């Protein structure tokens, strides 16, 4: 939700790479810059019920920069009539446009279209300088050849009457969605609603336009629709008129937008209803906020209703610039989860070269804003997730640098899928930490004020931030962000910082490119990469973690990748580098360094902040996975978890890593006592004992569900479940059930028999089961280990009587994909039923996500072959980005399994875990 809001907020500043460079003009898909639009007057008549069709007319007011006799713009439409006038007569109130559009859609003109399209002589119009119009379907361009050259500096008016499609499959362009009737009686016909999705480049499917972000113009929209529907667009409603020939249809006209990119235009036609609230903008205006959804779902808007106004206020206050539009509407489309719907509807992503700038800022702000208004939602959790995601993906030799020229990418989509958000936000977090919060804030304020409604690029921002950091003396005058940032944005990957103690008491800091191939180094490209690395640092003698203390004490640079600096007075105290996860790098310490940190954690872990604890755990396990460190170091570092009251998100980082080791072992049938014992000990540390469990709330990670198939735990959970199912539970049990719903159901369905399964299956179909509960049960059913039940759950989507919603299918498939017993069936299922599922989801992005999810634990050569064959077959549909990601993930898994096997096939290093284990068991017994 906040991602959406912040994207909306930032959308008024559209960051673009200017189109005016020679290099880019070489691309056949980019428009020439001889002319640019000033204003669109757009009249749309989308017919979404019967014989869906869209009729439209647009007047585009353009200005001429260099002489030309051809106008090229985007259009995946069928032009019916095109004119170009040299006059600058202002158009009337669009009465004429409405009339002709109405005629085109409703007066049988459609039938004679073929004829219209023939080169029959037009009535003579001396003012019209258009000679002919050509549609280039490959480049999605409309080419208008003129009778004369355009005059530089003059304004012209292009008028196009056209037909376009209502998209019925994918949710792009102007599309329609059928509103499911959740009413059991099924009394009433299902109604369609219409909506637009123009980002990144689908506006051209709905109206002829200069459909690149850098071309900004004001847009006046008039849309015609059945009056039972309500129309909303970016701007407030202005006026309505009836259609001339169709009863009960109206034209709604909206206020003209500020100058903006075409992809930002949006429109929804629906019977949804809204909750209204508002907030006071820093410029004194009361800005109206409306949240639209189906009436029965109003209760789900509760959080949004409370938070949205505060988010907007906080954003404005932080940057010091008011939101520029008069109102904000947020729409949740039916059939979608709230979060997903909003993302689909409003996450305004601009997928050109510098787009990461906008998105990275938006994502970073999500953190800053959340932290201020709702710290209880846990911004640290998000930070850790982003860091883990970015660091994990950015070393797979497939990630493209943030600033990769868009022309070189096979598809625009490739540019901004998945991890790039995470990386961009993390990079900005780093910038904020080394220029300081004050410089960052005032820099952004200046940047947004200066470039509002204009095109800007990252260089502009770096220049301003450099000036601000000099003003606040946070960076020396010899440093410049344009130079510092180049290596972070123009190359993929990140450094590993090695921290060693020299015998003379100094500390040696060294950067090398991080690579998960460190063992058998193959990649000569990244091996030579280097960065400007800000090193923030503290030590056990005087631990400090404030914002100010996070400023770098020293920089490693491409020229000086290694240096010695003065150490703490006490050489036997710990050193910690990269405070509060601010730098985009991993850190490794010498053995004594790790040991001193582990000791501190055992002694008093809160001396080191939670974010740093999460980071230490993530770094140490990652370095162990790639064999830079032996697993004993991880084991020692997480020992403190056995007794500490630790934040769930920190614990879950450890759970994730140990789970990964376990999963690899399970899937690859690695049977090794040493490894098994080690994992057991790790588990005993990270799984809370009875005592702490009651106080904390844990995520539903599979590894928390009666770990290691502990019989006692399972029978406790089963009896709780039985009492609940039979309605004989006590109030204490009922509370337990409520607090541990996921855990209890998952365990009961994994270890239970036919009666538990039937109970769950029937519960998902009972009208009395509430929607959120039903979804939780479906998720828990994904825990089953029984082959037949897995098949039954997978086939649920085919049952006509169930009419399973896409969101439910998604929940089931995701849950099964994380279940080792079901993983391979679910992968096969998805591949086999690809066509069916594509139709079911109607959303290519969801399908791509799904494929990533069901393949991400594959770790054998056979699976790689199978998946590759499938990817090859679907190459065109999926695009190379996703193919590369999946293949790289599986390859990395295979490598890791090999490393695991290697490590534990020789017994030289063996340390006897059985002692530790007995100790731990004794401890937890005495606690019980
Ligand atoms: C086109 O835009 C220019 C600049 O805003 C304006 O002066 C002119 O009147 C406009 N022409 C039409 C036909 O709207
Ligand atoms: C950014 O824009 C400036 C002009 O505003 C230009 O000089 C510079 O080369 C651009 N930088 C990039 C990375 O496109
Ligand atoms: C990497 O090494 C290979 C083999 O030595 C060589 O052929 C290739 O050109 C190198 N790549 C780069 C980018 O240096
Ligand atoms: C990193 O940046 C420095 C200059 O700041 C440059 O000399 C070096 O080539 C860059 N390294 C890479 C791999 O881009
Ligand atoms: C642990 O460290 C924190 C932070 O320095 C301190 O507030 C707390 O009192 C310490 N706890 C103990 C038991 O020493
Ligand atoms: C009800 O309780 C009985 C006895 O404990 C048990 O066997 C049965 O499975 C329970 N019913 C359900 C639906 O769990």
Describe the 3D structure.
- The two termini are 42 Å apart.
- Helix content is 43%, strand content 17%.
- With 928 residues, the chain is an alpha+beta fold.
- The strands form seven sheets. Strands 1, 2, 4, 7, 10, 12, 13 and 14 form an eight-stranded mixed sheet that branches. Strands 8-9-15-11 form a four-stranded antiparallel sheet, with no helix packed on it.
- The chain contains 33 helices and 26 strands.
- α10 (419-435) crosses α11 and α27 packs antiparallel against α29 (844-855).
- 42% of the residues are buried.
- The structure holds 2-acetamido-2-deoxy-beta-D-glucopyranose (6 copies).
- Residues 722, 725-726, 755-756, 759 line the site of one 2-acetamido-2-deoxy-beta-D-glucopyranose.
SSE layout and pairing:
Elements (H helix, E strand, L loop, with lengths): L1 H10 L10 H4 L9 E13 L5 E12 L5 E5 L3 E8 L9 H12 L6 H5 L12 E7 L4 E6 L8 E10 L8 E6 L13 E6 L18 E11 L3 E4 L3 E6 L6 E6 L5 E2 L5 E4 L2 E8 L5 E8 L8 H18 L7 E5 L6 H9 L8 H19 L5 H15 L18 H4 L3 H17 L1 H15 L6 H14 L9 H10 L4 E7 L5 E7 L19 E3 L1 E3 L14 E3 L5 E4 L9 E3 L8 E4 L1 H14 L5 H16 L5 H7 L10 H21 L4 H14 L3 H4 L17 H15 L5 H9 L1 H11 L2 H12 L5 H11 L5 H9 L10 H12 L5 H10 L1 H8 L2 H12 L5 H13 L1 H4 L1 H26 L7 H15 L1
Parallel strand pairs: 1-10, 17-18, 19-26
Antiparallel strand pairs: 1-2, 2-7, 3-6, 4-7, 5-6, 8-9, 9-15, 10-13, 10-14, 11-15, 12-13, 16-17, 19-20, 20-24, 21-23, 22-25
The chain binds 2-acetamido-2-deoxy-beta-D-glucopyranose (6 copies).
Keywords: Aminopeptidase, Hydrolase, Metal-binding, Metalloprotease, Protease, Signal, Zinc
GO cellular component, one term: extracellular space
EC number: 3.4.11.-
């Amino acid at each position: 939700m906040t991602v959406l809001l912040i994207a909306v907020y930032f959308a008024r500043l559209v960051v673009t790479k200017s189109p005016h460079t020679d290099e880019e003009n070489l691309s056949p898909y980019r428009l020439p810059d001889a002319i640019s639009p000033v204003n669109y007057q757009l009249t749309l008549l989308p017919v979404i019920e019967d014989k869906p069709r869209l009729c439209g007319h647009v007047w585009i007011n353009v200005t001429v920069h260099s002489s030309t006799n051809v106008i090229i713009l985007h259009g995946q439409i069928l032009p019916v009539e095109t004119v170009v006038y040299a006059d600058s007569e202002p158009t009337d109130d669009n009465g004429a446009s409405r009339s002709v559009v109405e005629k085109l859609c409703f007066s049988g003109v459609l039938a004679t279209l073929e004829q219209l399209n023939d080169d029959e002589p037009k009535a003579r119009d001396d003012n019209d300088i258009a000679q002919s119009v050509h549609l280039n379907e490959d480049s999605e361009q409309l080419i208008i050849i003129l009778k004369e050259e355009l005059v530089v500096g003059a304004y012209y008016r292009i008028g196009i009457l056209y037909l376009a499609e209502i998209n019925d499959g994918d949710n792009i362009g102007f599309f329609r969605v059928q509103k499911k009737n959740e009413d059991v009686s099924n009394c009433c016909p299902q109604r369609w609603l219409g909506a637009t999705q123009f980002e990144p480049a689908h506006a051209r499917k709905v109206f002829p336009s200069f459909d690149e972000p850098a071309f900004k113009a004001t847009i006046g929209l008039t849309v015609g629709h059945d009056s039972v529907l309500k129309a909303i667009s970016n701007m407030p409603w202005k006026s309505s008129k009836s259609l001339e020939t169709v009863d009960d249809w109206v034209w709604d006209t909206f206020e003209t937008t500020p100058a903006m990119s075409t992809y930002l235009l949006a429109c929804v036609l629906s019977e949804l209803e809204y909750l209204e609230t508002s907030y006071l903008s820093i410029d004194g205006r009361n800005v109206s906020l409306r949240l639209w959804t189906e009436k029965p779902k109003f209760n789900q808007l509760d959080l949004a209703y409370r938070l949205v106004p505060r988010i907007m206020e906080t954003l404005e206050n932080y940057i010091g610039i008011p939101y520029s539009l008069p109102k904000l509407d947020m729409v949740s489309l039916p059939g979608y989860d709230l979060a997903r719907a909003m993302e689909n509807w409003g996450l305004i992503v601009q997928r050109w070269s510098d787009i990461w700038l906008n998105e990275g800022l938006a994502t970073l702000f999500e953190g800053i804003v959340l932290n201020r208004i709702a710290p209880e939602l846990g911004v640290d959790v998000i930070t850790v997730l982003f860091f883990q995601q970015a660091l994990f993906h950015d070393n797979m030799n497939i990630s493209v640098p943030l600033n990769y020229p868009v022309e070189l990418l096979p598809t625009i989509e490739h540019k901004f899928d998945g991890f790039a958000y995470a990386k961009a936000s993390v990079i900005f977090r780093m910038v904020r930490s080394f220029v300081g919060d004050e410089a960052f804030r005032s820099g952004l304020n200046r940047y947004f004020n200066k470039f509002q409604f204009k095109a800007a690029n990252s260089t502009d921002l770096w220049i301003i931030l450099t000036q601000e950091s000099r003003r606040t003396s946070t960076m020396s005058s010899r440093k410049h962000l344009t130079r510092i940032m180049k290596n972070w944005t123009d190359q993929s990957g990140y450094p590993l910082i090695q921290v060693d103690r020299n015998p003379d008491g100094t500390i040696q800091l060294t950067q090398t490119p991080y690579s998960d191939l460190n063992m058998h180094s193959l990649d000569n490209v990244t091996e030579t990469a280097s960065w400007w690395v800000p090193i923030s640092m503290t030590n056990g003698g005087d631990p400090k973690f404030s914002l100010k203390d996070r400023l770098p004490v020293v920089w490693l640079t491409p020229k000086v990748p290694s240096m010695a600096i003065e150490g703490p007075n006490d050489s036997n105290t710990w050193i910690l580098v990269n405070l509060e996860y601010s730098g985009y790098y991993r850190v490794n310490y010498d053995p004594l360094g790790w040991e001193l940190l582990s000791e501190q954690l055992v002694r008093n872990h809160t001396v080191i902040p939670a974010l740093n604890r999460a980071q230490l755990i993530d770094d140490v396990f990652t370095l162990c996975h790639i064999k830079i460190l032996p697993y004993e170091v991880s084991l020692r570092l997480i020992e403190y978890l056995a007794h500490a009251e630790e934040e769930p998100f920190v614990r879950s980082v450890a759970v994730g890593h140990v789970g990964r080791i376990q999963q690899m072992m399970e899937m690859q049938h690695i049977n090794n006592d040493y490894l098994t014992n080690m994992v057991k000990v790790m588990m005993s540390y990270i799984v809370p004992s009875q005592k702490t469990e009651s106080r904390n709330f844990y995520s539903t990670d599979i590894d928390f569900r009666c770990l290691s198939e502990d019989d006692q735990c399972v029978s406790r959970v089963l009896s709780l479940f039985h009492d609940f199912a039979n309605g004989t539970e006590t109030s204490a049990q009922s509370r337990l059930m409520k607090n541990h719903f996921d855990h209890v159901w998952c365990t009961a369905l994994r270890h239970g028999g036919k009666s538990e399964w039937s109970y769950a299956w029937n519960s998902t179909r009972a009208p009395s089961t509430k929607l959120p509960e039903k979804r939780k049960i479906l998720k828990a059913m994904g825990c089953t280990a029984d082959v037949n039940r897995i098949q039954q759950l997978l086939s649920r989507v085919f049952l006509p009587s169930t009419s399973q919603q896409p969101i439910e299918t998604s929940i089931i498939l995701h849950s099964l994909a994380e279940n080792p017993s079901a993983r391979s069936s679910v992968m096969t299922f998805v591949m086999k039923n690809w066509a069916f599922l594509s139709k079911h989801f109607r959303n290519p992005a969801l399908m791509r996500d799904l494929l990533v999810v069901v393949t991400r634990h594959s770790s054998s050569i056979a699976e790689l072959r199978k998946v590759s064959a499938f990817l090859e077959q679907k190459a065109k549909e999926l695009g190379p980005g996703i193919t590369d990601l999946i293949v790289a993930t599986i390859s990395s898994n295979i490598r890791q399994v090999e490393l695991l096997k290697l490590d534990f096939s020789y017994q030289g290093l063996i340390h006897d875990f059985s002692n530790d284990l007995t100790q731990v068991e004794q401890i937890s017994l005495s606690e019980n």
